[in-house]
Specification:
Layout (H helix, E strand, L loop, with lengths): L1 H48 L4 H14 L9 H37 L6 H13 L7 H25 L7 H16 L7 H12 L4 H78 L3 H66 L9 H18 L3 E8 L2 H8 L1 H17 L6 E6 L2 E7 L3 H16 L3 E3 L2 E3 L3 E7 L6 H17 L5 E4 L1
Helix pairs in contact: 1-2, 2-3, 3-4, 3-5, 6-7, 6-8, 7-8, 8-9, 11-12
The structure holds guanosine-5'-triphosphate (GTP).
Length: about 525
């Protein structure tokens, strides 16, 4: 009986063990399924939140790698807690940034509402929009459509601004354009009568410009340039047309005179022939007629005919002379008119040539003229082994004058300084405006000992000018650098040495002459 009981118990135990085993298997299977689901969830979460927070990205990636090992969940507890904290922080940050964005939207909407020209309908829409965004956003998705709406409002306002042609805010690129135009104007040549317009534009460009002024400036300068081009073109064309007309008139006269003179020549020949025939007839009458009365009669007749021929010849000659005189008169008239046109055109050309070589503001030779002069003087140095100095002079802190007293005051100061430099030099010496507030002096035949005193005189002359801007006495100084053409040196290198000397003069406190021998 006992054996049977033991046997049953053993059987039961075996069964129980089997049951337990299969339960364990089911539990393990369940655990694996849950792991897999958790892993999938973590993967999805990683994908959705990727890029929002690097810390969170890294932590989720680490957890994914750990979960793949299918170890005890307790091993990941620490990581899961970390992720939870990061998520909470992320949520707080997101909520506060959504709140900030919401306030930003409110501010922009309020600003738009201040646009006076905004129609009532748009104003009402904007007020409604403002009311709508009073409540906090919970997700980015709620926030995005609001931005979209606000952009639409903005577009409407911009459209209105365009329509009403009202002022635009000046941007950095506009300022850059204004600067660019300013320097283009400096490089362009304008006629003296255009200078006032150009100066006004430059003054506008140098100050605070607005969008409309910038457009106008571009427009005016462009039309002045086009005007100059057309004028040049039409004056050249005009001259050529006149030249052509005169030449064809003179050509016509010459060919008429030629035809007339050919005709006259044959008439003269005919008349001469007739005259000699009459004289020959007299000879014949003399030899064959013996009766004196008849002879007299024949000679009288021949003489009278000869007289007629000679009178005719005289008339023809007079007519020829008159015609020739008339033709010559017309030709002279045409030619004198042409001479006047030529000299007028020559003056224009000379004026243009002068204009091309002169700086319009200071009336000093410009950079092109400087280059020509440098070349000529350099060739002389090479031929005669003479001394030649190049000096570069730059006004100190000129920007301050422009900034404090305006660009047109700066322009006037430049004119005065240019004149003063020019008048402190001898005729054999040369000064050009190199650009901006920089001048270049070409000084031939000056010894090493004399160059510094000469340039110091120029410098001191400028310093002594009693400038008074807006009632305020101002001293303007020059910094000068100079170099002598060394034996075998090219002119550009000398120029660069003079320029470096100027740089040193600026470095050493300005108002100085530095010589690089
Ligand atoms: N009024 C006027 N100003 C000009 C002209 N050309 C250049 N300038 C101005 O000259 C100034 C030159 O300034 P900077 O190059 O800074 O030199 P700076 O103020 O003279 O200072 P340093 O040379 O360093 O002593 C700028 O403000 C230019 O706008 C011009 O034709 N007329």
């Amino acid at each position: 009986m006992k054996d049977t009981a033991v046997q049953i118990t053993t059987h039961e135990l075996k069964q129980q063990l089997l049951d337990c085993k299969s339960e364990l298997k089911a539990v393990l299977q369940d655990r694996d399924d849950k792991f897999k689901r958790l892993l999938n969830f973590i993967s999805d979460l990683s994908i959705v939140s990727k890029g929002q927070n690097f810390e969170l990205d890294n932590k989720l990636a680490k957890l994914r790698r750990q979960l793949l090992k299918f170890e005890d969940i307790g091993n990941y507890q620490q990581d899961i807690n970390d992720i939870e904290r990061t998520l909470q922080t992320q949520h707080r940050q997101l909520t506060s940034s959504l709140d900030e964005s919401r306030h930003g939207l409110m501010t922009v909407a309020s600003q738009l509402l201040r646009v006076k020209s905004l129609p009532e309908k748009n104003k009402r829409e904007l007020i409604h929009f403002k009311n709508e965004i009073k409540n906090p956003f919970h997700t980015v998705w709620e926030y995005l459509p609001k931005i979209e709406l606000l952009i639409k409002h903005y577009e409407k306002v911009l459209e209105l601004q365009f329509k009403q042609d009202s002022e635009f805010e000046i941007e950095e690129q506009h300022v850059a354009l204004a600067r660019e135009l300013f320097s283009i104007i400096d490089d362009l040549e304008f006629k003296p009568e255009q200078r006032d317009k150009v100066n006004t534009i430059q003054a506008v460009l140098a100050n605070k410009i607005d969008y409309d002024e910038l457009l106008t400036a571009y427009h005016v300068i462009l039309s002045l340039v086009v005007d100059n081009l057309l004028r040049e073109k039409s004056s050249a064309q005009e001259f050529l047309t006149i030249l052509n007309q005169t030449l064809s008139t003179v050509g016509d006269i010459t060919s008429t005179v030629k035809v007339q003179s050919d005709k006259c020549h044959s008439i003269h020949q005919e008349l001469n022939q007739a005259a000699s025939n009459h004289i020959a007839n007299v000879g014949v009458s003399l030899s064959i007629t013996h009766d004196i009365d008849e002879l007299k009669q024949q000679i009288r007749t021949q003489l009278s005919e000869l007289q007629t021929v000679l009178t005719q010849k005289q008339k023809v000659e007079l007519r020829d002379k008159q015609q020739l005189q008339h033709s010559l008169d017309s030709m002279c008239k045409e030619l004198s008119q042409l001479t006047d046109e030529v000299s007028l055109y020559k003056d224009k050309l000379q004026e243009q040539q002068k204009l091309n070589l002169l700086d319009p503001l200071t009336q000093l030779p410009n950079r092109t003229a400087l280059e020509e002069k440098l070349n000529i003087e350099y060739q002389k140095v090479k031929r005669q082994q003479s001394d030649l100095w190049i000096a570069v002079a730059d006004i100190d802190h000129f920007k301050v004058i422009n900034d404090n007293f305006g660009h047109s005051t700066g322009d006037k100061a430049l004119q005065v300084i240019a004149k003063a430099i020019k008048s402190s030099l001898r005729d054999s010496e040369f000064v050009a405006r190199y650009g901006g507030e920089e001048f270049v002096l070409i000084l031939p035949d000056i010894s090493n000992d004399n160059i510094k005193p000469l340039l110091s005189r120029v410098k001191d002359r400028i310093k002594s000018i009693p400038f008074k801007f807006k009632g305020q006495p101002i001293t303007v100084t020059l910094s000068i650098g100079a170099a002598k053409v060394a034996s075998g040196e090219d002119i550009d290198s000398t120029f660069n040495r003079a320029d470096s000397a100027l740089y040193q003069s600026k470095e050493q406190g300005r108002d100085k002459v530095i010589i690089d021998i």
